[in-house]
Structure formats: structure tokens, C-alpha cells
Amino acid sequence: MLWYKAWRESRSRFLIAVAAVSVFSVGVLLGARTNFPPPQAPLLPYSAFVWGEFYGNGRAVGFSVIALLLGLGGLQRERASGSAPFTLALPITRGRLVVTRVAVGLLQLIVIALLPALIVPALSPLLARHAYPWSQSLQYAALFMSWGIVWFAIAFLWSALFRGEFTAAVAAILTPFGYLVLYGASRGDQRFPGANPFTMMSGGLDRHLGGRMLLTEPLPWTAMSVLVVIAAALLFGAWRMTVRQNF
Amino acid sequence: MNDSWIIETDALTKRYGAVEAVSTLDLRVGAGRITGFLGRNGAGKSSTIKMLLGMSHPTSGTGRVLGHRIDDARANREARRHVAYVAEDKQTYAYMTVRQMIAFTRSFYDDWRPDVEARLLRQYELPIHRKVKALSKGMRTKLALLLALARRPRLLILDEPSEGLDPVSIEQLLQSLVAAAADETAVFFSSHQIAEVERIADHVCMLDRGRLVLDASLDAIRQDFRLLEIGFAHEPPRVDWPATDVGSIRTTGRQVRILAKCNVDAMIERAYGAGAVSVETSAVSLREVFLDQATEQA
User: Where in the sequence of chain B do the CATH 3.40.50.300 domains occur?
Assistant: First the structure.
């Protein structure tokens, strides 16, 4: 039943995100039936159109916001709403509470990352009358997830740390901005181009605008593994904090 | 540590910064009885209960609930399998319906009693399809009580259980607690309603500023506790009253007012020996003991 609890706590955010991504995806494909190729770029490849609509920097930002929102919640939030004593009196460890929330949140994030990956190749021939490769969609889903789990873990950590009802949400939303400011100030785009979250999520193709915008090189598995380790460390920190807190 | 105690703490202490919420508390709660946990606001009752249930960590000292250490997460979880708890706020999950809350809670315990659940649902007239967030405060309290009372735990801990209830529901609650105790469940409850405690408790523990200032059975309070009003012809002399026999001493002019816990006859003798001209004794109620202890400490 802990799964049910974690699901109910995040259900609204998840379903709103699913609805938004689904409606947006289908809407874009339906629009492509009449508006693709655009008159100003009659030679634009369909793959480039899909990249711009689904996997460009703006969409990576949108997915990051969803990941941050899904990471919010937990015992500190319950403390604010008054239900923390009830939860903590249940015969379960705090570690199990944390693990369940993480598992449910990550599953939800995977579903949202896979939505366009399934909708675009499946419905493109039907709605837009063009084909789009499954392999490309699934690779982008993996790229989105790589930073998505980091954003999720950051929001999870802030949620474990801050008591205020909106403090964790504000801190979570501000974190990517802070990171990008530091990244820009340290000239990261020149020294560590792979560390730009939105560039990496977009497959690093923003430098090849005008091309077919297809992933032709292997995924950056090393960088993705590092991100998984970072996310795991953040989640471990949240777990340690939760276990030690006084309620 | 003694196995016959359901709750046992040794020098249990909790500090929040410079504030000592619970101070070297040695608390013993026996099996099969109803123990009232009294104290003013901020006396440390809720802090104590939270440490017993593993919600907050002791600054120092230790304790056991049902023989399980409170400062060991896994041991404390084992204890919580057999403990039912009603928190001060009585908040459950706002997004669940009453029925979902019952199903959720039931899934964690082997000692759930569907017959009691059904009876309490009828008795409390809880709307099972309504979300918790749409319940009144009284209804939320009733739901929290149902989730605790529909089990057969070894220990029932309630923090201000009657707060927000109407008189009829309070009566039902008190009867439920007596029935639970008769069913071999130890009941440990905090309350500001002295009359409730006096009506159903077998034993009373009183905290003031985090310290245990009274630990006695109700029978002992009724039989042994006495209020001595001692009159002197002149300014009262300094008398070394035995600390173990005295709850509190207050001097007003030529009058000395003593709350005696036991050995009243010996104290009367000692008073006359010190030059008292009159000694009046009267029985004391729990309310008087509480007020005496609370104002003495203040």
C-alpha cells in the first residue's frame, strides 16, 4: 500500500504532465499534416521538424521542469500538512518510504520520457504522413532521462531538506538556473560542452541546425553514467537526511 | 530494563537548541492499565511520545517500547507493529477517502478487527466515500480514533484524543479506552481534561518542563494524598519535611499548605512538633494535584 500512497501523492502532477505531453505531441503531429513543410523552409526534413518540436532545447527545459515537479513531496511536505506523525507511526522504516517514493517518481518520469518516443514514430505516418525512426525517439528518451533523473533527485533532496510548503519547489526550480549561471560564468560551454544539460538532452545537435537533425553517433554513455551516479548520490543524501530528521 | 514495563525510559532527554523539552525522564508504564500522561502545554508530553515512536531521536538517554529500543530504527519498527497511535493533530491523508484510509491502514497490521471497524463506522457515522480533506475536525478525529481502535494492539498511545470531539463522542471514546484496557491493551494517553483522566486512568504520570513531577496510581492519590493546611502562631519555622513524602509546599503568611503524598500522620506529628497551632487535612482530587504541581513549578 505504500506504492498506492506514493502514487496518490504524485498522481495529479503525473497525470497533468501525461495529458500535457500527449496533447502537445498529438497536436504537433496533427498540425504537421497541413503545416509541414513550412512555406519558409520547403526543404526542411521531417526529422529536423520533429527535433525542433520535440527534442530541441525548449522541450528539454519543459521535461526538466516536469522532472523537478515529480521529485517534490515527501515527509517534510507531510509535516506541513500534518500527516507526518501518522505516516511515521506505521510499522515501516523511513528508508522504505524514501525508496518507494523514488521508485514511483522515476517510473512516472520514464513514462513521460517515453510518451513522445512512442507517439511520434507510431503516429507520424498516420497523422503527419511522414515516418520517423523508433531508434531516434528511444535514444532521445534516454538522453532526456539522463538529466531528468538528476533534476528529479535535486527536487527530492530539496524536499527532504526544506520544511516550507513552497520552499522546496522554489529551490528546485531555481537550481537549474543557478547551475546554468555557474556553467556560463566558468565558460563551461567551451571547456565542458557535455555538461550543458539542455544541449546534452537535445543530442548536442543545436550546432547542426539546418541538417537532418538525426543522432548518428553513439549515445554519450560515459556522461550518462556519471549523471546516474550523481543522481544516486543526491538520492542517497536525501535518504540519509530523512532517516536522521526529527519530526 | 525490566520486561514487565510496556514503556520504559532511562534519563531520556530531548533538546531543541537551548530548550530542553524532555529532561532525564525515567518513565515506567505498566502492562494492562490505563496511564494518563498529564502536563501543561509545552511540558514535553508530545516530545516524549514522538521519541517513544521513533519520530524524533533522543539527545541522550534511552528507552524501550514493548521491549524494543526506541533509538534503533528496526527495533522501533517492530514495536510499532503492536502500537496504535493517535497523534495530536489527528491528520491523515487529505487526498484519500475514509474508505481508502481504512484500507490503507489495515494493510499494515495483522491485528485489525473488521467487526470493530464496522461498529465504529456506524457509531461515528463516518461518510466512507468522503475525502479526508472534506471532513470536519471532529470527523477527522473520529477517523483517527477508528484507525487506532479497530486494532488489538498491545499498546495504544493517544495524544489529546478527545480534543475536537462532542460530549457524546468523548463518552464513546472513554468507553472504548476502558474496553481496550479490559482487552489487555495498555493505554497511554495525554490529556488536558483532568476529569477524563480521573475517570478512566489507573495511573498518572505528570510532566512539567520536561521533568517527571508525579508518578502515582489514582488509588494512591485518592487514599494517600492529602492537603495539609498548617497554621502557626508566628512566622512558620523552617521544617525539614521528608522530600519523598511531599509533593509541594507553599507558605502564605502564617499558613503552610503542603501536598502530602504519603505518611500524613507522621507529617502532622512533625508539624505539631514544629509549633503548629492547627493542622487541617483534606482529600485531594487529581485536578488539585495537577494545579498544585503545575503552579508550584511555575
Answer: 7-219
